[in-house]
Specification:
Radius of gyration: 23 Å
Number of strands: 19
Largest sheet: 5 strands, mixed
Strand order of the largest sheet: 2-9-8-4-5
Strand content: over 45%
Order of helices and strands: HEEEEEEEEEEEEEEEEEEE
Helix content: under 10%
Number of helices: 1
Length: 177
C-alpha cells in the first residue's frame, strides 16, 4: 500500500522526490579565480546554487552527476557546496584558492623595513620575494602578510607563493637608503 501511494503521488505530482546533492570529488583541487572546476557527485540536475566555501559561483549542471563551475573572484579556500531543492551537499576536501595581492604599504623602504601586504588567501604562504629576493615574513591574517625588506633587495615587484599558486604585484617596491 505504501509503495502504491508513493507511485500515485509521483504520477499526480509529476516528479519524483530527489535526494540532496552529494559532492564526491572535484578537479582541479587548487587554482585561481576564473578557472573552471569539474565537480562530480549526484543530485546535480536540479542544483540551484554552488559555492566555493561561502562564495556563490556561476555553474552549469552538465548531468545529474557532473557540474562545471567557475571559481569566483571573491572565492576563499574551503569546501565546495552544492544546493538543490532537497538540501545541501558539501565536499569532504577543500578547494584551495591561489593568493591575490591587492596592495602593499609602504611602497618604498630601506632594508629591514616592515612591509604590509594586503590581499586574499595568504594562509599557507611559503615565500615572499622582493624582486626575487626571499624575505622573512609572517602571515598575520588570511588577508595580510608582514614582510621585512631583505638584504640585497632591488626595485621591483613583490611576489607571494603558496601551495595553490603565486601572485606578483602589479606595482614595484622601491628600495631606498
Amino acid at each position: 500500500p505504501t509503495l502504491t501511494l508513493f507511485l500515485q503521488c509521483v504520477m499526480l505530482c509529476g516528479r519524483a522526490v530527489q535526494a540532496a546533492p552529494a559532492v564526491s570529488s572535484f578537479s582541479p583541487a587548487t587554482g585561481k579565480p576564473g578557472i573552471q572546476v569539474t565537480i562530480n557527485g549526484a543530485g546535480f540536475s536540479t542544483a540551484t546554487q554552488l559555492k566555493f566555501d561561502t562564495t556563490p559561483a556561476d555553474f552549469t549542471a552538465v548531468s545529474d552527476a557532473r557540474i562545471v563551475a567557475t571559481v569566483p573572484v571573491e572565492a576563499t579556500t574551503g569546501p565546495v557546496r552544492v544546493t538543490n531543492p532537497s538540501g545541501d551537499g558539501v565536499s569532504g576536501a577543500s578547494f584551495v584558492v591561489a593568493p591575490r595581492l591587492s596592495s602593499f604599504s609602504p611602497s618604498r623602504g630601506a632594508i629591514n623595513t616592515p612591509v604590509f601586504l594586503q590581499g586574499f588567501n595568504f594562509v599557507g604562504a611559503t615565500n615572499v620575494l622582493f624582486d626575487n629576493k626571499p624575505a622573512a615574513f609572517t602571515v598575520t591574517a588570511l588577508t595580510q602578510i608582514q614582510a621585512m625588506v631583505p638584504a640585497g633587495a632591488t626595485n621591483g615587484p613583490i611576489a607571494v607563493q603558496t601551495p595553490a599558486g603565486a601572485v606578483v604585484s602589479s606595482n614595484d617596491f622601491f628600495v631606498i637608503g
